[in-house]
Amino acid sequence: MSTQTTSAPTAAAASKEGRRRPDTAYAARGTRPGFLWALPATVFFALFAIVPLIAVAVLSFMSWNGLGSPQFVGTDNWKRIVDDPVMVKSIWLTLLLTALGVALQTPLSIVLGVWAAGHQRNRAVISAIYFVPLLLSSTAVSVLWRALLDPNFGIPARMTWLFGDGNLFGEQTTAIGVLAFVSTWQFTPFHTLIYQGAARAVPQVLYQAAEIDGAGRYRRFFHITLPQLRNSVITSMILMIVGGLTTFETVLILTQGGPGTDTTISAYYMYQKAFQGFDFGAGAAIALCLVVAATIISLIVVRVSGYDKMRSDMEGVS
Fold this sequence. Notes:
The chain has one domain: MetI-like (MetI-like fold), CATH 1.10.3720.10. It contains 16 helices and 2 strands. Helix content is 71%, strand content 1%. Strands 1-2 form a two-stranded antiparallel ribbon.
């Protein structure tokens, strides 16, 4: 009788073990899925990222106007863009707009994300309305705000007491302000989603313990919520930096790099060189500079923040 009683649970456990999900089995053995699992993504990344990047790098040493065969010119393209004052100015403008994007979107996204993660009344409805800009393309958003801010027929023309002559695109300061505002309006909902998910993952026991200790709402936010969002903040900032360095449509539609070259950022200058001036070699050199700059800045942020040391018990297991 005792033998039968002991064998029954053992058989049930064996049956349960046999039905264990693949990811649980991987975790139990302390191993990762094989390389074949990553092969489709690796091939896709190689074809649509690595190969085009190599082609751009090769083209940066060529002279090509889009017709005929490219001619090798060595480092001539690189020398020209280094000595080009418009290129130097575009770099500073790109960094300025990127810094403004991070400075404006980060605090706003954190506050909205933490709020959206709560249990406020009508929170779901208000959040759904607020996330509408996330559904629109950059082109659609730029066209929308170009119409709304038109100096002749838009909002500024009706509110001259606030906007003066109404031409927000006629001066560098206001034009840069418009670009920063439109980018913030469009992309803040995306980063809000990141912080909303991260805020919901914070263990409630931490808030309960803090409430018992007498900590108020603001103290819980600064001493519990913000530290728990640290890795999400770093991830969001990296996405903002890369997005800021590569933004293009907003400038193309709203300001066309003007007035003059006062909003000509590097990505837009690359477009001008390659597709308006038919100097694809110089355009490729500028594009490669942007890729290198975005990579270096992202690595610096990761390194300084310690994000590269973050580990997970389920790392490598899906």
